[in-house]
Amino acid sequence: DAADGLEFAWIPFSDAETGVAALHVSVGSFPYAAGIVPRTSVATTANSYSVAAENIGTMPPGPVWVTLIAESGSGAQTVVTNQVGSADASAPDVRLASVVETISNTSLIDIDHTNTEAPLYAHWSGATDKESGIAHYVVQVGTSELPGRMFEAEVPAGQSFVQVWLADSLAAVPGHDGGVIADGSLLHVSVTAVNGAGISSNPFVSDGFQLDTLAPSTGTVLDGPYGREADCVCLSRSKRLEFWWRNFEIEHLDHYDVVVGTYPLGDDVVAAQELPPTASTFVVDNADILSGLGGKVIYASVRAHDKARNVGKWLSSSGVLVTCGLEDGPVADDIGGDPFLCVGNHRRLDAELHAPPSDA
What is the tens place of the pLDDT at every residue in 208-267? Predict the structure, then answer.
């Protein structure tokens, strides 16, 4: 950057016969040119030269060449010219630059929510500088008012991501200034590119993410087909177990986990299944799974995950009694009616059917 002036050095010239009588320095945009610093005489013993910014002429972007002309006492000349750098008076180009927040150093999927117990990564691309190249980046995480409040680091050129460690706190995140950033705050990652001339770009900023450390709320898990509740079910009639849930009021729900077992939170009937956020029912209709469940009480358990990677508590249904299994054949006459409306969990069944579990 011409605003910083110029400084360069060389190995001193010598002449054993007649000595060095004169030494001249010039600076230009190509070999032997003098358009930036005109030909100037310096001490014959000099080995360096500096030029203040106000004494530098027009410095077009591109190579900078220094030419030294040493003249002996006999009038013979030695000319040395060399490129010492590139002129750059402009900031890096970030018109096509972008930055996203992700959950790993390999993912480029932008996230909109995160908690403070998992690492956050910033990925960026698109900054260029034709004259002097990118020297390093400055990455900040914070609010719009305080961009570097939570995190600030210098990242070398050639690296396009950095891991942002958020403090492990369930309520708030301590900032660099000693304050706290409250749960629910909108945070941004900003990246500034700095070129070889030390000139910084305008920061390019992510679309932001919300800090969320609260676990998802729990709802209600029910036994029976959607919209109805059941105390018992006869598999030889229904050929399925059905469960549903409601009132999981989560602003940014990501998915549900569901298990089915012979005890609350149990997974001995169906191991953990991941369901999309739009799901509200779960059906077990695999004959191999249903076989042998007659006389048992079956429970479904559900928990919610939000997009900030917070996990809610497991919540179980009250349990549904399997009054007759697939192997029991026709439903006995004394059950009658809709099996989901049967009364109580201890009704005595026909001799061909399983008797329900005892009170014990």
Answer: 999 888 888 889 999 999 998 888 888 888 899 999 999 887 888 999 999 999 999 999
Helix ranges (H only) for 201-351 are 235-238, 287-290
- Give the integer Cα–Cα distance in Å for 342 and 222: 16
Residue whose token pair is 């149990």: 266
113/310 Cα distance (integer angstroms): 10
Predicted TM-score (pTM) of the model is: 0.65
**Where are the extended beta strands (E) located within 118-228?**
120-125, 134-142, 151-156, 161-164, 172-174, 180-182, 186-195, 204-205, 209-211, 220-223
Distance separating alpha carbons of residues 127 and 77, to the nearest angstrom: 45
Structure tokens at 27: 């600076």
* Both tokens assigned to 321: 């009694």
> Beta-carbon neighbour count of residue 332 at 10 Å?
17
**Residue 83 and residue 288: Cα distance in Å, rounded?**
79
